[in-house]
Batch of 3 targets.
Target 1
Amino acid sequence: MKRIFWHILLFTLLLTLVYPVQVFAAGDGNMDGGGSEMGQGTAQNFWSPGNDGVRITVVNAETGEAAAPSVDFSNKSFSKPIFHFEKHSKLDYRAGAALNPIQGNYLYHIPAATIPYIMTSNTHPANIQAIRQYFCSEFAAKMISDATGLEYETLIGGDYKLVIEPICYFTYQGNFCAMTATEAAMYNQLSGGALVSMLPNVIQKNLPLAIFLEKDDLGFPAWTGPTNERVTDEQIIAALGIGIVSYKDLPAPEIEAPDVVYRVDTDVITSITLNSKRRLTPSSPGKVTFYIKDRTYRVTNIVMPSYSSQVVWVKWHTPSTPQDIRIRVSVSSGNTSETEFIARIESLDENPPPDPQATDTNPRFTMPSLPRDSQKTSASWSVWYAYWVSDFCDEGHDHGDWEYDANYYYASLDGDMELWPDDIVPTASGKNMKSGYGVKENANARLSSNAPSSHYTTAQTAVSYFSEFKYQTYWRLLSRRQNGLNSTFQFKENPYSTYNRNVHFSPVWYPDHSDYTVYTRIIDAWTPAGMLSVNVNDSVDINGSLFDDWVRPYSFTYMREAWDR
């Protein structure tokens, strides 16, 4: 059957015509996506959700000419022979390249960091924001640099763009195939519609609508048609199945680089240092006003000796959405070098890891070292106060004067964390578990201070990073379960958990007889002298994988959480 299929394919390719094709841009994120359920399939014709990838071509940003051969990436490790076409980009096909079928010898790369789902299905919905974020990242640029042989700095210098095309790996007439959306549409035309007759939704919805342009680029139009309906071969060839990442002419920030970075929806402290050559007294005090968004914060009754300084601060709550805020400061007495600065409000809850899969592999994985992020675990500051010392003369007049002293304050932060196998891992023993199952975390932060509560905030944020991603690329923002001087944090509910467990799933490929270490930064304990933070980590021992616990295979999601079996 394979030989007959391939001979028919070779014959029909003699009829190849030139078709227009569309491209897609990113870097500034010029891509969108759609699609939905898989639709029909048979034992000889089917697609399994998650069997997808991308073809990336580096092209000249002005001419669209390829700067290096196209390279394919997929999370999967395929052991069976793959029927595919000689690697061409959508631009090549637009220029007249023909479909050239090849059996076997399919070359592709498995990235160190898992690519988000590219094609949408009922069980594995794709997230275009995650796709855009992945391929616009520094990690992806370096990955592509390594795969193509182009220098990293050259790649991102502004002269090149990445053309990204979704790839589907599917079975057709019993043969395992790899095709981009454009190749599938061209072959379907050449086969008289035979391919779509077997896999209609996969070929004319899930694959082409996985990625498309939001705006015109490289001579290809943005897609403005439906995103959840079947499309035609002509529409696919002209305008679908393509995205573009651009490293040139990115939108300039509305305001300059930030002077301080805060998290969204967080209590923070903004401080300046007030200097004064003359003394400030209770009868002639200083005043500082902070203008933050649409609110005004006034700090009054500031006193200090002449030629002295005083830290002055305001405690406020950041907005719930990321943005840059211009903070202005005015003083009525004295001076400060910090009269205007930029605060960046960021969200850390935008890059959670993708769902690990049973077929994930990473044969080139090496154990990374723990990060060496700076941490500040203590701070001190002081506040001047004035008191009157009387000096009465013989006539009864008080010739006294103001004298000054200071209250000295401190704050310190320490923390720890515990990492354990999830409670429903069936074969866990203490800290020992098999890879593929979930782990749970409990991180603790303890703040101590002799200052009033208006002088500090307790630790409010904890972020965990994972060794399978080299402690970068992806992270989890933890949920604060206990507030106050003693704060506790845990994983949020995992959206891929059948039972809504507060876990992170370890990758099934993780090396045997090794420590699986999670690294967590506890931050956002603010003081007038800056933010306190502490870094903690803990491990579980990996011995074996969850496949060792099963006599016969079930679905991967069932196996890793089948606590009631």
Target 2
Amino acid sequence: MSTATIDVDTALAEIVRVSRRLGADASLVLHGGGNTSIKATGVDVTGEAVDLVLVKGSGWNLATIESGGFAPLRRSRLDALLQLEHLDDPTMVNELRQASLDAGAPTASIEALLHAYLPGRVVLHSHADAIVALTNRDIDVDEVRDALGEGVLVLPYVMPGFPLARLIAQTDVGGADAVVLSNHGLFTFGDDPDAVLRRHRELVERAAEVAGVDDWGSEGDAIERRGEPREIAQLRHAICEVAAAPMLLQQSVSGRGAEYARRDDLDAVTSRGTATPEHVLYTKRAPLIGRDVVAYADRYREYVQRHRSRATTEITERDPAPRVVFDGELGFLVAGESVAALQVTHDVAVHTMDVVDAADRLGGYRSLDEPHTFDIEYWSLEQAKLAGRVRRPLTGEVAIVTGAASGIGRAIAERLLSDGGAVVGIDLDARVRDLVDDDAWRGVVGDVSDPQVLAAAVDTAVRDFGGIDVVVIAAGIFPPSMSIADLDDDVWDRAFRVNAAAPARLLRAAHPYLALSPRGGRVVLVSTKNVAAPGPGVGAYSASKAAAAQLARVAALEWAPDGIRVNQVEPDAVFDTAIWTDELLEARAAHYGLSVEEYRTRNLLRIEVRSAMVADAVAAFCEALPATTGAHLSVDGGNERVI
């Protein structure tokens, strides 16, 4: 089919459809891997027809890609580039950007030149587990070709980008509709998008039959995680130490991973490299076996030193911390800067287990050697990404927030999440469980004064994220107004249970983990102006909050040697919270002889104080002010009695 008959909009609809189908299969494409293209005819600003290749943009996920995820590149310019003898990576990326018909389009995949050269309108590329298992062995290419059948060109591994494109451009691909690149993946190409996808799947199925696997990447049954939480936190602390930055650590529930961690030959099995070259960016070349993080880091630095001379430019060394851990007691764990990174590493590791086992059954797994692995890990293009990476204030850190389902607690939890933290929220309200659509969120339902509920929250924070760096105590109750003479014992007892006993129990449970925080633990108590300036009729509230405030001051004294900072924010008249019902607002306003509106702004600045303002103050204590502990910060618009 001639590209002249295919307009850009039609072509984009076709390639988006087949790309999503390809990307929906994790055994073919994992977390942004793979790439696709389609050739079409566009029109430039002068009205002249232009032959284009629409190539997947770097960073787009095939499973969810949209038409805006493809870069429209002028084929004539790419054909000219392929005539060069050499093209370094930064120059090639610059040329690809200049070849785009749309300056606002994403940067095209590094394989764009190859997509432009291969025959047929459509090119699909994946890192299929079955293909990788078939080729990650010390075998002749003829064996791979025989297994897959006619029409398949099998090539040895070549560095992606210009070297690979030049190799194929210098190879006769006549009669072929597929290329297998050893240790890398599969390309299929042709004019009919659906036929190209069918051919892709057909070849992968043949490879899977040879490998004897029909379910790649299965995690197995979910297991109950073993080991003491404190041991996980200690391991995470060691990882953060060598990484020189906060990191998350997740203990997997994968039965497959736990079984793998107990293998007698684990060191030999896992020391042979990654399934595909780019996986080294997610998992390092080898996992940590056991818990000697320092020795692992030393080995990684030695590996970098052995191959540093291969780099074409001065390199920025990646942190030497492991990303995958196998431990006989703790099982299978993954480390990373974010929950998204944990998920990628976890999935890559599980798929790698299957690839290695399948290749071993076929005669022996063999990945790329160390030098070629180093070339990918310290590729100039990856170094550029490393230089441009920006960490958010709480990247790699874990917070527990009580009272997180509404009001001040919710505002704080959402702020800490948006600033890069992983957050465990606790609340009686069952909505806390699914309050935020974010994989870095966990909601624990229950009474904050119940030690079992607190233990569950701590266990979740440690096993899912690696530890506890921040505790924010925002849960509280405001009992009905009554004088001391009329004070009800149940009201008094409940106020002290929720407002004073619960914070004490949470601090006690969290302390061992706060002491292991890589940047020093932080505690913020959401107190109240009533501690300094109580009002009549609120004896139970004021006294219980004063008890919590005094507890926080003692914690600041006791925990300073552990590097834990304990501070308080003291809001007043924050009315966008569950505590302040319309009835309570009216009652308190009437008590002071004010209208409700006057009561809302009864401060020196005459502004309404909102939950987000309190969250700003909490964030300041959690994210900055490393020399501040035992401090009190008013968030009340200015109060004459407090001042």
Target 3
Amino acid sequence: MSEPTEIRTEVAVVGAGPCGTTVANYLGLYGVQALLIDRSTEIIDYPRAVGMDDECVRSFQGIGLAEEMLADAVRNVPLKMFGADGRCFADIRPTTNEYGWPRRNIFMQQLAEATLRTGLERYPRIRPMLGHELVRLEQDGTEVRLDVRGPAGEKVLVRAQYVVAADGGRSTIRTHLGIPLVGNTHPRKWVVVECDNDPLDAPYTGLHCDPKRPYVCVDLPYNYRRWEFMLFPGEDAEAMLQPEKVHELLTGHVPDPTALNIVRARVYTHHSRVAARFLDGRICLVGDAAHLMPPWAGQGMNTGIRDATNVAWKLAAVVTGRAHPRILSTYDTERREHAKAMVGLSDTLGRVLSSTSTWAARTRDVLLRALTVAPQVRDWLLEMRFKPMPRYTEGVVLHSRRPVAKDSAVGRMIVQPHVETADGRTVLLDDMLGEWFTLVGYGTDPLVHLDPESRAFWDRIGTCYVTIVESRSGRSRAERLRSGTDSVVLEDLDGALRKWFAAQSGTVAVIRPDRYVAAMADTAELAGMSGEFERLLSPRRQPDAHDGKPARPAALLVDGGAS
């Protein structure tokens, strides 16, 4: 028997769906060597995720693919909820864009996956191994060994420092590790139907809460449309996929069901489950391998992309020696509780919107219509403020006091307004923050207030430095404020960053690679905070005599560090 081919890599990503390919793109961006392993060579072409929120698009922005993703999406799609009587009781059209992108974007997953796979071609250290199936794996304190079978049955032994399990809801890796999916499976199944000759003039996502048969109707890009119908006890799932049954389901919803070109029809079961742990030794679970949720909140893939963005920078920090391996434990700390919250939101919406009791449905409609008369409730619903936003109170964050203040920005994503560069370009903030950590000062240059030891630490981990100034605070367009250091100066075009910083206790923010605020400090506290943060990333480092002391006075430039 021939010996298997042996491949060594820093990270092996198993599963080339949207979460796995997002991890691989980020690892490529960070210069990490990685394999992307998937048993299929083709992109799955049946109905799956269709909703992409602002946080998700921002993650794709980080790997330079946001605009390419949105080129195949419909932006700012309304979400309408219809009661038992067929009347709309909620027309959700979020207008906020605090993270720089629309909150509701409708796309087709197969097109998004193609974009992500093409994106990998930019990174020479990323090697796709499509058509390769994971057979088994084992790990010890130094590596993970994966037995992989190639398309012709050839054996490959992969030795990786770390593994990302992005292999879906039936994850081979999660099963092998014996990690349970905690939660429940819903008894009702759903038929999902898509056509490519949409006959309706209904440019929105409709949640039709009809107790006779709840259903969802989604306007998709490129003249596609999707319907999702609940099945009742006694209805045979496979029989309901037959053309005559599909036409029966669509009767009353389109002028002529037989005229539709049905391109996909499948039966789905809804699950509400979260893995008992997202980290096992050197193996991280992401996406559906880590959590499953009903589609009511449209957050399944979005939650997985948050996982991918979080775990990728931590793996990169560890394998490049910029952080201690213990920070990987914060992936579970930060992501698992939020995934539970998203599953809870999906369950709550499902209970409210998919009732099959006529009395309960009518009671619900009356109550919701009455509640939305109140402006605060109406805004809470219409602006999608019901969606739990990630907030990390533990993990790679430094909070100035405990308990954590409710309005503290630490542990939350920083806003992303437009800013203006020194050469007069208007760009989104992230485009100027670099790919790694960033120290951002408002009205003050962080570099002016760093002592040599603190500066050495931030430089060592590849930090960018940014100074935000008021819009038009120079003498003219030709004479903008400039930094006397290596800090990049940006103008706060709409005053959004001034408002954001004014609500916080510090003037300097530490922004993580995933755009979450890791810490905030006043200039006098910057050296002490820097020492704490170094110990957070490298727990074995011993404190020295300077740690925790205020920074020594530095030569100040005009306007607190911008000249």
